[in-house]
Amino acid sequence: MSDETGHETVHEIEVAAPAGVVYDLVADAARWPVHFPPSVHVERLEGDGREERLRIWATANGEVKNWTSRRELDRAALQVTFHQERSQAPVRSMSGAWHLEPLTAERTRVRFTHTFTAVDDDPGHVEWIRRAVDTNTRAELEALRSSAEDADPRLTFTFDDTERVEGSAKDAYEFIRAADRWTERLPHVSRVVLTEDTPGEQILEMDTLTADGDTHTTRSVRICFPGDRIVYKQIRTPALMAAHTGEWIFEEDADGCTVTSRHTVRIAPDAITGVLGPDGDVDGARALIREALGRNSRATLRHAADHARSLGAPEPVPAEVYVSVQRFYAEQMRLLDEQRAEPWAETFTEDGVFAQNTGAEPLRGRAAIAGAVLRNLERLADTPQQRRHVFSMLTVEPGSGGTVRTRCYAQVLATPPGGPATLHLSAVCEDVLVPHGDRWLVRHRRVEHDGV
Description:
Layout: E1 7-15, H1 19-27, H2 32-35, E2 39-47, E3 51-60, E4 63-74, E5 79-86, E6 91-104, E7 107-118, H3 123-149, E8 156-165, H4 169-177, H5 182-185, E9 189-198, E10 201-209, E11 215-225, E12 229-236, E13 241-253, E14 256-267, H6 272-276, H7 282-310, H8 319-337, H9 341-345, E15 348-356, E16 363-364, H10 366-379, E17 386-398, E18 404-415, E19 422-436, E20 439-449
Helix pairs in contact: 1-3, 4-7
């Protein structure tokens, strides 16, 4: 046992609902992400109704944290106690309890206590934990009150969309996991910012286009279980939704796989008439949400299925097509090596896209692509060197409408006056090429830099 100083917090709230209703919300940890804003995902690892072991992901001071807790549930005493088996820094240990006190048959006092220690007793860690506990607990208690008092069961609902995939679950999973490529792959996604500081824990912010041309911005935390499922919670939702959680489920069999998109939504009742008009009601809100989320889910599922199927067993392109692509790349890279920005940009379509995994926004259109090359040349003007762009290990697969999909290794060699040559970067380049007369143009290029 460590010698860190223990710290305690106590938070209370009164709820206009029977104690049994409140207890059920506290006890059902799997539903916390729908009701409690900080909770992202809860896995019940084991349990028998009186004791259970949970793996919990939640936000704390804007960061995603996860830990394992044991809980003891006592319905007769209207009490749930917990202690963290495995905490995450800066928390050294954490325990606490929910105490419910019936004030009347329809009113309950909720008392939520925490006892914690901080790593190394660091005052900064103590302040961080106290702030996180205070912020999260206040949000949880307010959400608990709202959920218990707004008891209309129609406000929370779950629905699925499913797609059969003639391909591997691994490839379908990778399409969903790599959300940073959705602007290239999904027509309803116009902007994506994806961060993954901890492997398997993603923050996804994106703009999606609605059927009427509007743009909705959402921000989600996603937890990835490789090859099996991806769970998420939106931490920035449209006005009509008080909460939105979801899950992508991948089930492989002998003939391919089935991918399911599951949504659970809690409607914000106070927003219904503001969004739907004075005649709006819960049924109308459910229908609107089901249609909007389902439309985007089904589109994503179809594209994931097409992607997985295309990677299954592609037919080889004719030899003359492969050679023509090799010739195209030789000519295109020579233009870049000769610092001819505008002619190089003209090897892209008018609306061509150049995307990278370096965090920069994709370049769209020839002017933007040429401008980026010119800026890079200006930046390097004071450090003269000859750069050579080398494409190798080329694969070419047929696409739709005469297009081809290519993948190759890309290296850039840099040689200063007098040498020696050094490897400046190594990457994988994936293109969609479209025929244009007797040559090719790049409609979309994605460069995945090694080490990023």
